[in-house]
Design a protein that fits this description.
about 20% strand, Alpha-Beta Plaits, globular, Rossmann fold, six-stranded mixed sheet, about 45% helix, alpha/beta, four-stranded parallel sheet, 18 helices
């Protein structure tokens, strides 16, 4: 199944005065690093700072008055909710928004701002899938229309207009690879359908966070699967189950799915901010973060990465930096068993630590009835290879240790 081009073109006409035709820019820093022409489709500059306004408005404006007279409902991790809220405000329709309790405060506030007095926000559950279940329950009980964030043909067609804009702006430049984030699959299904009609030789690469590989698992299994557990950090692309419609399209249009570790995504967020002053959310960084895994294939090619959104809460920046450093091997936490003898700490400082190692956390409680005492130690390194020297020295000088990265439950509790 591939979505008809006419449906995407009709959505584009419907959206002309609502969604921005966002720019596509050649990024010189990325292009030089990868020795390729790296173009960024800047959906982070959209009116609601993500592409989601496209699908939401196209879906809602395609409904009859009878379907919307009682109000409409959506479930979202945050970005679809903002597009939904703005659409309700523009069209004068009452809307109910269900989002996870864990949704960043910034996204909740943006939904309320865009929706004005047309929107009621309800925070339910820990994941998008939990909120979705509550939203459907509310819809059925109140005879309201549900505006799906991805598994609906009108939503998919709206997202597909991103593809029309890319091809229009790149009409004189053949596109070898297109990278885009995959959550529920609406963007991927719409844009890849457009490319299959108008640029069939472009290799479409879908990108998911390692902690939420729902589309990759579905494609491997040949059918949609529900993941038991996901990492919600990349909230804009973390769903337990992709859509049935989006899967049926993506299995015919996507060349390959690649998983990007959450820590790698954080590194990309920081690099984009520091080198280009581009602020992206975790899902918005996925397409660019994936380039490292294709460095050899894309050399000398024309590449487009869809920067899907920039709704990032400043309160998350410390966590983003922490995850990045842990992933890059520039920071580690250990439980270290210290001999309870005078001079043990001095030995650790003098003999174990390298000259540029920096202790950023140290918690220790001496217990007089034991020969050893456990300490929680956090260390930052100048270079990733310094971690091996520290481990070697701890073994050499008799300090037993446990890396917390090997014990995620204990890490979450202590750090």
């Amino acid at each position: 199944m591939i979505l008809e081009l006419e449906k995407i073109e009709a959505a584009y006409q419907r959206l002309k005065n609502v969604a921005k035709h966002t720019p596509i820019e050649l990024n010189r820093n990325l292009s030089e690093y990868y020795q390729a022409n790296i173009y960024l489709k800047r959906e982070d500059l959209q009116v609601v700072r993500s592409y989601k306004i496209r699908g939401a408005y196209n879906n809602i404006s395609s409904r009859s008055a009878a379907e919307t007279q009682n109000g409409i409902v959506c479930a979202s991790a945050g970005n679809h909710a903002q597009g939904f809220a703005l659409s309700c405000s523009l069209l004068g329709i009452k809307g109910f928004v269900y989002m996870p309790i864990t949704t960043p405060k910034q996204k909740v506030n943006q939904v309320k701002m865009f929706g004005k007095d047309r929107i009621e926000v309800r925070l339910e559950g820990d994941t998008f899938d939990d909120s979705y279940a509550k939203a459907i329950e509310f819809c059925n009980a109140n005879n309201m229309a549900f505006i799906h964030p991805f598994d609906n043909l009108d939503t998919i067609a709206g997202q597909g207009t991103v593809g029309l804009e890319i091809l229009a702006d790149m009409k004189n430049t053949p596109i070898d690879y297109l990278f885009m984030a995959v959550g529920g699959g609406g963007l991927a299904a719409g844009v890849s359908s457009c490319f299959k009609h108008k640029s069939p030789n472009t290799q479409i690469i879908g990108v998911e966070p390692t902690g939420a590989p729902s589309m990759k698992k579905a494609l491997e299994n040949g059918n949609v699967v529900s993941l038991e557990k996901i990492d919600k950090f990349v909230d804009g692309a973390a769903v337990k189950r992709v859509g049935d419609i989006t899967f049926s399209i993506c299995k015919e249009t996507i060349k390959e799915m690649i998983l990007v570790p959450e820590g790698k995504t954080c590194t990309t967020i920081l690099q984009l901010y520091n080198t280009d002053a581009i602020v992206v959310e975790p899902a918005g960084a996925l397409s660019i973060a994936a380039l490292d895994f294709y460095k050899d294939q894309i050399k000398g090619k024309n590449i487009v990465c869809v920067v899907s959104g920039s709704n990032n809460d400043i309160d998350r920046m410390q966590e983003i930096k922490e995850r990045s450093m842990l992933f890059e091997g520039l920071k580690e936490y250990f439980i270290v068993n210290f001999p309870q003898r005078p001079g043990a700490l001095r030995s650790f400082l003098d003999d174990v630590l390298g000259p540029s190692d920096d202790i950023v956390r140290f918690e220790y409680l001496k217990k007089t009835n034991k020969e050893t005492g456990a300490a929680l130690i956090g260390v930052e390194y100048k270079k990733a290879k310094d971690c091996e020297a520290l481990r070697t020295n701890m073994q050499k000088f008799g300090f037993d240790f446990i890396p917390l990265k090997d014990m995620p439950v204990l890490y979450d509790y202590l750090v």
